[in-house]
Specification:
7 strands; 49% strand; 7-stranded antiparallel β-sheet; alpha+beta; 3 helices; 19% helix
Length: 154
């Protein structure tokens, strides 16, 4: 069931980018270009075919967010390919908090409710997702913290 974990990770990474593509103007200035450290905690519950406890994962990674990434709204996406055929709904921006629902159709059907709180040195994102992959249903929660580490190093 490694595929489910990889898809869940890709979906989570894409969520930040997908949220910003339509309302990028509302979120401009909330994240600055530079190197970011990401801590992501996912809980996929009990996934059929996966040993108990394997549905909880913690990942740490770093990614350089370029000025072009900020302009396009790809704040945490990196270069991973996420789900396609997605539509963002119910976007709201109040102060430093954005919330929205992402609905994806097709091979990987998914509904994800997201909240992003922007802080002075990054952001915190919480996501609750329900997906259907070929009739196999999965619920997942994801919490992500992104913290600026300064300029990107090449």
């Amino acid at each position: 069931m490694k595929t489910a974990l990889l898809f869940a990770l890709a979906a989570g990474l894409a969520a930040t980018g997908a949220a910003a593509q339509n309302p990028a103007e509302a979120m401009k200035g909330k994240v600055k270009p530079g190197m970011y450290s990401y801590k992501m905690e996912m809980d996929m519950g009990q996934v059929p075919g996966m040993p108990a406890g394997m549905g909880k994962q913690t990942m740490n990674m770093q990614h350089c967010v370029t000025p072009q990434d900020v302009e396009k709204g790809e704040l945490g996406k990196g270069r991973n390919e996420g789900p396609r055929n997605c539509e963002m709904k119910d976007f709201r921006m109040s102060g430093n908090t954005a919330s929205y629902r992402m609905v994806c159709k097709g091979e990987f059907e998914m509904v994800a409710d997201n909240t992003i709180n922007f802080v002075s040195n990054g952001y915190r994102m919480n996501m609750k997702m329900q997906m259907d992959r070929g009739g196999q249903k999965m619920n997942m929660t994801q919490n992500r913290e992104a913290q600026s580490l300064g300029p990107c190093t090449k």
